[in-house]
Protein 1
Amino acid sequence: MSDLVAAASGFLDHYNQYITIFLMVSGLYIVIARGNMVKKLVGLSLFQSSVYLLYISAGKVHGGTAPIIDPGFTVYSHPLPHVLILTAIVVGIATLALGLALVVRINEAYGSIEEDEIFERDRDDK
Amino acid sequence: MRNLFAVAVLSSIYSFMMASVVLVLDAPDVALTEAAVGAGVGTVLIVGALYLTKTDESPPIHGMFLPLVVAAGTAAALLFGVSDTPPFGDPSNPVTALGPDYIARSIPETGIPNVVSSVLASYRGFDTLGETVVIFTAGIAVLMLLKRSPARRRGDGDKGG
């Protein structure tokens, strides 16, 4: 019985990582399974946001507060992951903008944003 | 869901909820950025791209078996690795070991009470410069991709493309 309780608490101690894994795998699935390129990019940003969650939850300390120094508090969460993820969010939006610009160009050249229709046209051209 | 405008709205809502989660995890700076950039600018970009392309998705023609296998395999590998990681929120977690050091040195060394700002602008200033270079490059690439198109469209018009 105590083994079971220990296993359950070991499971619950990492619940942030299970949420991260779920989000990451659903993003990966969308990127592979969907033929529509806008949906692929939305899946990619889902994947990226799971990485944000992984970093921010790793820096969290129980009973801590936001890392803004105030005499009323002594325990703060780790500020470094916050800085790294601030950079990652901005780089993520830059990649999203570039991907969407490529989608617009592909739509002008092929008249479609569906992956299989584009492959079809490439095969016909050969 | 075949209408892509619904996808844009849902991804905006998702970004906003992710911002709320991050706020609860003690990162107000990240929450502000995620709400402004992820839920705001990202949605504007997706809606703009939909305006320039198509708003409906055609039904998928290939099966979902292979993507599911890849996703399940990745999930299994990641779940296998979870047991070695430190528990959530544990103060003795090696990830957070250097946190108090940053907190203690921020005011004496930089005079900024917000430690995230002092790390971003002072200790990791070159990182932030690199980030700016990335945005600059992406902006130039987007301009090059979209500016070329009117001339190309006129040229392709003869061939019926």
Protein 2
Amino acid sequence: MLAAEFAAKLGAKVLTGEPRDNTEIKGIYCGDLLSWVMSHAPKSSAWVTVHTHLNIVAVASISELSCIIIPEGIKVDEATINRAIDENTIIISSELTAYEICSIAHDCGI
Amino acid sequence: MKLHYEIPANDLTYAGEASSSVKKKLVQLGIDPALVKKAAVSMYEAEINAVIHGNGGFADVEVSSDRIIVTITDKGPGIPNIELAMQEGWSTASDEVREMGFGAGMGLPNIKRYTDKLDIDTQIGEGTKVTITVEFNKRL
């Protein structure tokens, strides 16, 4: 499923604007320890994290994750959004919890 | 191809910029994405270590036809016990750094996992030089 389509399923907002390419989500990975995420998250996963600082963009990019999903309406720093736009990394903001996001992903066949 | 980057001290704002830049260059060179990831993850971990623990320093990257060698040289206090530092979960990071998701004690273990060769040259009171080699004829 495309990241933009999944955002719509979540009723979530894509903070980084319309995705420039057809970025596909092939799995979901939840985690807040950055090194753990880098060493364990499968490529093309959507990454659910409560972190909103600049470094999440580098972690997502280096780990080849399809997008970052910030749960529970946590406010994302403007600088992080701008960095993500520059790096062509998608950030989605959802009001749902990580569990609810994963449940919807499962229902969507992700 | 040779690249050189300065690594700022104690400023996580721009930490990872060198690794991200190198990743883009390796992609542009058409290097296998699996090998690019090995090099980028290893370099990112070493770069973050230099920022958090090493008072900054510099990164040198050399890409040849059969391998990439990344050298991260920091100006930190050195590593008193490398065996301990290589243990997953062991960390001296501050609470502030941990709250950002770093400092899980996985940096050096991750580097070892993702590289074909890891050399650590550390001098107490002078600094640490971490040399990472990723061979292009090997995969994870």
